[in-house]
Give the backbone structure.
Amino acid sequence: MAFSQHDSRWAHQRVGAGKAPFHTAGCLVCAVASALVDLGIETDPARLNQWLQENAGFFNENLLIWTAVEPLGVRLNRLINCVNTPAPLAILEEDLAARRVVLAQVDAQPGGPLNQHWVRLLSCDPAPMRCRIMDPWQPPGAELINLGQYATSQGWNTSQSIFKAAIYCRNPSEDP
């Protein structure tokens, strides 16, 4: 399921208890909501945001606690920090092949200081133009794109374009 942070149903709602609305700061909640839906949990960004607020899912007002969604029936499988090293594409490809969901932090404006933006990785390839993502920044209905816009202006490959990854899977103990 693809979600846009510009969707009028939640674009102007605040993320967590912070001041920033979804249309400027809701990429991660949208990506997590997308992941949850594809793992079989019925939600959307507005409902997930509300649930996270009610269940201490944020710190510093609007920063997601990675394990906060585990009571919903998923498990954080791994969190990979690759700011100073190439992203481990083989691991990300393995996770995708195992039907885990991969959230990836990219640079929203490559070429300057890191301007973090979260997308959902749908397929992984060393060439960013062949790497498919669900990008919450895109308008509703146009969220499925390739990773190229976050890589090609700097001549980066996919492993250079991903700065963090969070991998979730369905918690087997929650299956019917």
In short: The CA atoms of residues 37 and 43 lie 6 Å apart. Strands lie at 58-59, 63-64, 74-81, 101-107, 116-121, 132-134, 144-146, 164-170.
